[in-house]
Design brief:
Mean pLDDT: 80
Strand order of the largest sheet: 7-6-10-8-9-11
Structural class: alpha+beta
Distance between the termini: 42 Å
Low-confidence stretches: 1-47
Number of helices: 5
Strand content: 25-35%
Order of helices and strands: HEEEEHEEEHEEHEHE
């Protein structure tokens, strides 16, 4: 219990280190250097499966079928894997288990009976996220592997002292459609809400009140926290 409390206090200290952050300008994103993600781990983070991205290296195993097993395959720039027999398979944006299931279903449709397929991420390529709004160092950051929302904000050296942490907007492309969800970073820090995993190309805006009026209306119309809706 004391160790968990210590971890929470440490994460909170990282986020409260900011002092008077700059005002957000969505037309100008300032590039900045990434920080070590190992310093931003939190007790409130909920483990979730990593979503595969472009240039990730994957190992594919089809049980007892060595000709369909590979130690290393790279996700191409279109987000696909090229596999024998079944051709291009969408990998980007999926978890290892989702991709395993898809490959198994395609193989079983014509070639194998009840294939057992395992997909493992051998190396996660760097993916970019943008952290903007009421943070100390707004900018574009590189992340490797699984990164939570709390960790992403810590990469920008935390929110400013005047930031409204109950309104953190995350903009994301979902099935080709630009979407947005609102999160309560204060509740996440206090352990009252799950710490969501961010994806490559996400744009995180701390304190949604700093968005322009049109975007504030869109965000304000969201039915509930943590639900992505297209706009």
């Amino acid at each position: 219990m004391m160790r968990a409390l210590s971890l929470v206090l440490t994460a909170s200290a990282l986020l409260l280190a900011a002092c008077g952050g700059p005002r957000m300008d969505v037309t100008q994103m300032t590039a900045a250097q990434p920080v070590d993600l190992n310093t931003a781990r939190t007790a409130s983070a909920v483990p979730q499966e990593y979503r595969i991205g472009v240039s990730d290296k994957l190992a594919i195993r089809v049980f007892q079928v060595p000709d369909l097993s590979f130690d290393e395959l790279v996700v191409d720039t279109s987000g696909n894997l090229q596999l024998p027999l079944i051709g291009a398979v969408r990998a980007s944006g999926r978890t290892s288990s989702e991709l395993s299931t898809d490959i198994a279903e395609r193989l079983s449709a014509q070639y194998l009976r009840n294939p057992q397929v395992t997909v493992t991420v051998v190396q996660a390529a760097s993916q970019k996220i943008t952290v903007d709004g009421a943070v100390t160092k707004p900018g574009v950051y590189e992340m490797r592997g699984t990164t939570s929302l709390l960790q992403a904000v810590a990469m920008a050296e935390g929110p400013s002292r005047v930031a409204d942490l109950t309104k953190v907007a995350v903009f994301r492309t979902v099935d080709g459609q630009r979407s947005v969800a609102l999160f309560d970073l204060q509740a996440i820090r206090q352990g009252r809400a799950d710490d969501p995993i961010v994806h490559g190309d996400d744009i995180i805006v701390v304190d949604a009140s700093r968005l322009n009026s049109a975007m504030r209306e869109i965000v304000g119309a969201l039915p509930a926290l943590s639900i992505f809706r297209p706009f």
